[in-house]
Structure prediction request, 376 residues.
Amino acid sequence: MNKKILSLILVAAGSVMSFGACSEDDAAVTETTVQTQPTAEVMAPILAPRESDTVTRTTAEPTGEHGDAPDTAAPLLVAITRDAYVELGTSFDIDSFISYIDDTDPDPSLMVTGNVNTAVTGAYPVSITIADASGNITTDSITVNVYEPVPDSGVVPDTSGGYNGTDFSEFMASYPGENIHYGIDVSHWQGAIDFNSVAASGCEFVIIRAGWSSDGEFHEDDYFQTNIQGATQAGLSIGVYVYTSDNTVQAVENLADTVSSLVDGYNLAFPVIYDWESFSKVQQYHLSIADLNDLYRAFDNRIQQHGLSSTLYGSKYYLDIIWDDSISPVWLAHYNSSTDYTGEYFIWQQSDHGLISGIDAYVDLDLYYGTLPGGS
Prediction:
């Protein structure tokens, strides 16, 4: 288990969540215990609990049932919307406003307590309790605001101002150094790219999305072949990443096979990068923190069987609370002028609002430290 997770749980104490629901015909408070299931509803914006927020985690007394390592870590509240907004007359889904995971239990139970009547506008307090199989619990609360939407004024906002990001030359000037190299990462979101112009702007490397995988089904990025060929011909050092929300070992092993086949014949400067970041409503994947780390290791083992290596992409927040410290160095995402991440990383994704000649869209800006493989 990630030592940072253990420290966070033990120091922060316990946190339980409780939400209540009320039908139009029944205004009485109801209390239910729910095993959350995947939903098709759109995820509302959620925020990680702040240090100033009241978060309670309670650990069970060690029972010895798990041998020398009893489970005493309470479920982790990954994110929460403390002021939730639900439109009048629509349904309220608690899973759209919280995200949680346990260290070892893939299916912690959720109990929500309170009274929410979406037929009447108002603010409804809701309590939440998450419990794992060992009896460790996490408690918290949110306020559900049922509101009546304001009629559309018909005024269309002016969005003709163009892009307002960081120019690549400005990015380079902000991080000078002999052992610092400047790059970008791209996918179909950037559209058609003139890699010769990209290289002429001072870019030295590019990390390209191979595609994405969900439920064991791989979808190649529409621009992968064009991007990897164009970047290679422009003389850029290249890397490849794959986005996945797969939740079985078989699926990630198949993914490793597919990606290995896609990059065959190309000279990769970096390890194949595994990108699992579906942490909003993470409970729908029925995975524990231990399971997530095991999935990456299964991917890595299979990649190595193909004569390649792999590493992990992650934001500072999730690298600190989810991923095992032994997975290093990583590709760090931390959108800030400087980073205080204490783990080992070889590339820092510093911004997602870069501008560079040859790309008519925002692009992620990356820094590589050390001697650039396949480059200068």
Notes: The chain has a mean pLDDT of 85. The first strand starts at residue 16 and ends at 17. The helical segments are 3-12, 168-174, 195-200, 224-233, 249-262, 289-305, 316-321.
